Amino acid sequence: MLNEQIRSLENAKKNSEAVYENTLQLLENEKKHSEQLSEQLTEIKANKLAQYQEELRSESSALNWQNEQIKEQKVALEGDIKILQNKKSELQKEIISSEQAIKEYFINIDKHILEQKIESLIFPYVHTLSEQYNISKGTSLFIKKGHIYKSSGNFESIEDFVDAAEDNLTRVGYRRSEKIICAVYSSIKAGIYPLICGFGSRKICYSIISAMYGEIPETIAIPSGYSEIRELIDSINKAETKVVLIEDLFGKLNEDIILPILREFPIGDKILIFTCEDIECLQYVKRYFYNYFMLVKIGKCKNIETTFNYGNVENIKNKYEHRRTSGREYQIARTIFYKTGVNHIYSSRWADILAYLIYEFEIEEAEAIEILMQLESRWILSTEEIENVKDNILKLGYEIHLE
C-alpha cells in the first residue's frame, strides 16, 4: 500500500515537472515571439519615419521650386513692367512729336498747297520720270512691274537652289549669303513674311526670288503717310507675279495699315516680302508685328546691277514637312526666350523657321540658332533681354556670337 502511494507521488511529481517544463518552454516561446514582434514594430516605425521624412523632403523641395518659379516670374513681370513703362514714355514722346508736326503742317498748309500747284505747273509729266514705274490715276503708289521667266528650269535639290541664289547675290555684290538664303526660304515655307532690312534689300530679294520662283517680283513702293488699304490690296491682287515686294512701309508712320494686309494675304497664292532701308525704320514698330514677320538684317551690299539665274523650287521634294507640334525646336525656343518680353506666338513661329533651317538645309542646331539670333532677334530685343537669351542658350549647351 505504501509502495503504491510512493509510486503515485513519483508519477505526480514527474507529471508536475513535465508541466513545469512545458510551461517554461511556452514562456520562452512567447518571449521570443514578443521580441520578434518588438523588432518588427521597431522596423515598421523606422520605415514609416523614413518614408515620412522622404515625403516631407520631396514636398519641401517642390515648394522651394515653386517658390523659385514665383520669384523668377516676379522678376520677369517687373522686367516687363519696366519695358512697358519705357515704351509708354517713348510713345508719349512720339505723340508729342507727331502732334507738333501736325500742328506745324496745318499752320503752313496754304504754303504746301501753293508749292504743289507750282510743282504741277513746272513738272506736268512727273509720271514719265522712270519707265519702270507706273503711277496709276488717283493713286500715289509707285509700282514697278514684275516679270515671270517661263523658261526657267526646275531645281532637283535644295542645294541647286542655294547655289543659284548664292551666285545671284554674289553678282549684286553681296557675299557670305548662304545664311540669308536659308532664312528667307525657311521663313516663306513656314508661312512667315520675310522683312529684309538694309541697303540693297531690293536686290537681295530679287536675287533669291528669281532663283526660288523664276520671276522678278512686282514691286510696290509706299509713300509717306499712305493709308489707302483697299487700294493697296487691289494692287497686290492685280500683280501678275506670285511674289510681291512691298517697299518703304516701315518708318514713315504707315505701320497701321500692315495688319489688314497680312490678314488679307496669308502666304499661299501670293507671297509678300517687305523691305526697309535701315534698322532705324523699325524703331517704333510694335513687337507683336514680329509674330507675322521674320526680320532678315543684311550687311553691306555693293551697288551693282546685273542679270540673275532663274529657277523654281516647287518640284523639290522637301526634306522637312511643316508640322505644328511641341517638338524639340519648340522646347528650344521656349528655353531661349524665357524671361524676355516676347510672347508664345513669336517663339512658336521662331521654332518653325528653326526647324526648316535644321531639317531642310541640314544646319547644325547651334548654327541655326545663331543665324536667327544674328539676323533677327538681336535687333528686336533689349540689351537686358539679349543677356538673358545668351544665358538661356548656355543652358542648352551652346555659345553663340552676335557680332
Write the layout of secondary structure elements.
Layout: H1 2-107, H2 109-122, E1 133-134, E2 142-144, E3 147-148, E4 153-154, H3 158-171, H4 178-189, E5 193-197, H5 201-213, E6 215-216, E7 218-221, H6 229-238, E8 243-247, H7 258-264, E9 271-276, E10 293-297, E11 311-312, H8 328-336, H9 344-359, H10 365-380, H11 383-395
Parallel strand pairs: 4-11, 5-9, 5-10, 7-8, 8-9
Antiparallel strand pairs: 1-2, 2-7, 3-6
Helix pairs in contact: 3-5, 4-9, 8-9, 9-10
Fraction of residues in H or I helices: 55-70%
Q: Helix and strand succession? A: HHEEEEHHEHEEHEHEEEHHHH
Percentage of residues in DSSP E strands: 5-15%
Question: For the record, what CATH class of the largest domain applies?
Answer: Alpha Beta
Q: Let me know the average pLDDT.
A: 79
Going by CATH, the homologous superfamily of the largest domain would be P-loop containing nucleotide triphosphate hydrolases
Radius of gyration: 39 Å
Shape type? elongated
CATH topology of the largest domain: Rossmann fold
What is the subunit arrangement here?
Answer: single chain
What does this structure look like?
This protein is of the alpha/beta class. The protein has three domains: 71-124; 129-312, P-loop containing nucleotide triphosphate hydrolases (Rossmann fold, 3-Layer(aba) Sandwich), CATH 3.40.50.300; 328-395. It is built from eleven helices and eleven strands. The protein has helices at 2-107, 109-122, 158-171, 178-189, 201-213, 229-238, 258-264, 328-336, 344-359, 365-380, 383-395; strands at residues 133-134, 142-144, 147-148, 153-154, 193-197, 215-216, 218-221, 243-247, 271-276, 293-297, 311-312. It has a seven-stranded mixed β-sheet with strand order 1-2-7-8-9-5-10. It has a two-stranded antiparallel sheet with strand order 3-6. It has a two-stranded parallel ribbon with strand order 4-11. A hairpin with a 7-residue loop joins strand 1 (133-134) and strand 2 (142-144). The longest helix is centred in the first third of the chain and has 106 residues, at 2-107. The N and C termini lie far apart (127 Å).
